[in-house]
User: Fold these one by one.
Assistant:
Number 1:
Amino acid sequence: MSVLSGKKIILGISGGIAAYKTASFVRLLIKAGAQVQVIMSPASCDFITPLTLATLSKRPVYTQFEKDFGEWTNHVELGLWADLMIMAPATANTLAKMANGLCDNLLLATYLSAKCPVFFAPAMDLDMFAHPSTTENTRKLKSYGNIEIESAYGELASGLIGQGRMAEPEDILQTITDFFNNQSTLDLKGKKVVITAGPTYEPIDPVRFIGNHSTGKMGFDIANEAAKRGAEVVLITGPTYLKSINSSVKVVSVSTANQMYKQCHELFSSAHIVIGAAAVADYRPKVVADQKIKKNDEEFTIVLEKNPDILASLGEIKAHQFLVGFALETENEIEYAKNKLKKKNLDLIVLNSLNDTGAGFGKPTNKVTFIDNDFNVFPQELKSKEAVAKDIIDQIVKSYAK
Ligand code: PMT
């Protein structure tokens, strides 16, 4: 049985072409057993008819105050009735009104009255999406606790290609299913989790750097998992192309090990759990050239100096914090990982070995071994990085509870 069975869901539709997708979304919700109340902005009725949605949702569809209710207060009741409200599509106009408390139709009045979690799935043309006012309105909405279901990149109704396509009904369904599933496992609620991810880039000159193959995926997946389980998450990431991150995660972008060190120390006193998944460069060029270095001699030497060890420095000042490190090894894996656990004063270390096929950098999978601070060793299977992230959080929760 789906977790959506019996859930009361308000689907708020505003006036954009993506409104046509709501027919299949309503069908998916009804098939999952949800009770669906559709509320449409007047403009959305030009894109899909209330009759279609009433037929699919098996309920009358509301569009206006007096016409549908005969009185004006029922938006308050609707707002109290729902377990979840979702605005899909959320046009630039509706987003702006939601962000600023405007209330010139029944849909917006219900949104302002809603006591339940509110999701919104933006849908608009790429330039409208990229406009600073839309970005600001989205930020504002998220700061009020609303949850964005990110729009996709692709061909838009205008024929242009860019970001702004409403997420597909199946993906929206998955997001809210995950939400309800996770409501029962919010075991990190009230905890602040700081996670590092990605490589660091140590500059040689304005165009070159010393880096490594980390993509950031392992750290991003851990951040997503911790956020799903109710934590307040800050992700400090080195350079990466990854974008997909739970909208509640605060992302701090850095480049060098020194910058990552500074951010970690700024956040450490308020953190409950710190997880170091970043591949931090141990050394950096001692001198960074102001201009691009020209090729002259047959050989060229770069003198390196040591970077601070971020986790070790946190281990030294650790009070209540639970400190988790990774170990990326190529030989004597267990022994080296145990040494790092002890030397850096960690509570748990996650070992991944480049000798294991499918483990380590860049890949969508990882194979890890947990070692706790009693030196108990728990080898795990090869899994997707998302599944490994879940195992890591499970292990932390178990150890943290002790
Ligand atoms: O990003 P992906 O492509 O998904 O790849 C994931 C990963 C392989 C990078 C990740 O799973 C991983 O193993 N990260 C740690 C890599 C690493 O630098 O390991 P290490 O054994 O050199 O460092 C041990 C620990 O100390 C790590 O937690 C590291 O973040 C930390 N460290 C290292 C050096 C340093 N100067 N400061 C640190 O805090």
Note: Residues 196, 198, 214-218, 257, 276-280, 282, 307, 309-311, 325-328, 340, 352, 360-362 surround PMT (CB under 6 Å).
Number 2:
Amino acid sequence: MSFASLDLIDGLLRTLESIGYKTPTPVQKQAIPAILAGRDLLAAAQTGTGKTAAFALPLLQRLAMEGGQAAPNHIRCLVLVPTRELADQVYQSFHTYGFNLPLRSAVAYGGVPMEPQLAKLRKGVDVLVATPGRLLDLHRKGALEFTQLQALVLDEADRMLDLGFADDLDLLFAALPAVRQTLLFSATMPDTIRAMAKQLLREPLSVQASAPNTAAHTVRQMVFTTDKRHKPDLFLHLLRKQGWGQVLVFVKTRKGVEQLVGLLQGEGIAADSIHGDKPQLARIKALKRFKANAVQVLVATDVAARGLDIEALPLVVNFDLPTVAEDYVHRIGRTGRAGATGQAISLVCADEVELLRAVEKLTGAVLPRAEEAGFEADHRVPSTGTAVAQAVRGTTKPARSAAKPVNTAKPAKPAKPAPKQDDTPRPAGGFGGLKEDLPPKEKQRPRGPIYGARSGSPGAGTGGQRGRDGAAGGKVMVTATRGAKSTARAAGRAAAKTGGRGNKR
Ligand code: AMP
């Protein structure tokens, strides 16, 4: 199937050709005709499935075909996203896809001066991409009118609720015209999102671009079990031994991020960070440098887990497992995008076994484990299921908790008869597994606040951007790099001095 067969106009087809998009992805095939026809949409689509083009292309076409212009301080289409980075990215996509169309787009988020955003809005904007907090501020200032608004997109809606935007969203929905087209994209479909969809959408087309809560099947996933205090040195050791190129690393706390960056920079490795304590401009700069390959290791809290589209990123490392299992799926979604292959490695210590269990439960797969010589866990990470040992490379040893030892030089034979529990990621993510169904008719618009932030999520109920990085607290980074057990033990001593395992989060 070609984009032309989806009835896209010439201006868009020329752009798609010039950027090398040949065939629509499954979510695009389903969503584009429906959106062009003016339907509401509920899409379970994780990042990497091509969901941005799935809504941007038809919305741009509708606006262009309709002609006309946004009046000063008016917008015709609003795209709400959870994070500033995603706002920039989605805005860039609209800018790219709409290159040949006479439409104006703009982006608005907090943490940067408001004046340039006000200036853009003054002229009127066809497509505004925004985070909820700044959007409300602009509206309260009278810089933004919604009477011309025809289409609303909620992108990564589950994440918006996780980040505590529920109240802001309620206020916004109350201010928007009742007659409009609404598109809701969410990687996961918790009850809060279903309730939101029920209230906001009218007879939506329901599209599922991947099985919910599964990681893209093009991402090879594994776990290195170790002790918490070994993690910094194990990371450095693997980086060198496995010759890692660019890597995106997720660390639980902002302090932990900076400590790891300090360690890496001290070792002469080009590293930078993204987290909620960093000014927005510094975050944008770090991301730009990473995308331009001027930075090898980008260390981030979960603020970077969603939406970042970094071309051909080969590897994501979970230095810490996320406290919300869904974030695992989003984190590793930074690699293996658009059908490319990728790898996701998690460093897991005994304290994190419940988090690992939660990730495996969510994704329906037991992650293969390994241990690296010199960095073995003194505090054994308990088994999380009937995992079957997987083949791993080099001198890497299978974890003690794996079902049976494997010869690491060669692919391992299953140690037992075929396991019931599949220990490879389910082949359901990426561009596969599209399903469509039509839910029962639902014609109601929202009448009041109906959904709250998901309980137990980092930042839930903290309001806007504030809660996005999870708990404060620390890890201890050491600068030894010998990569042997003795080094790890020295690291452990240093950790003990400064708090180490006993540190409160
Ligand atoms: P998204 O899921 O929207 O973040 O998109 C993931 C990546 O897929 C982005 O780099 C897009 O540029 C790319 N992409 C989206 N649609 C297509 C397509 N039809 N063909 C090739 N690449 C695409």
Note: The two ends are 51 Å apart (CA to CA).
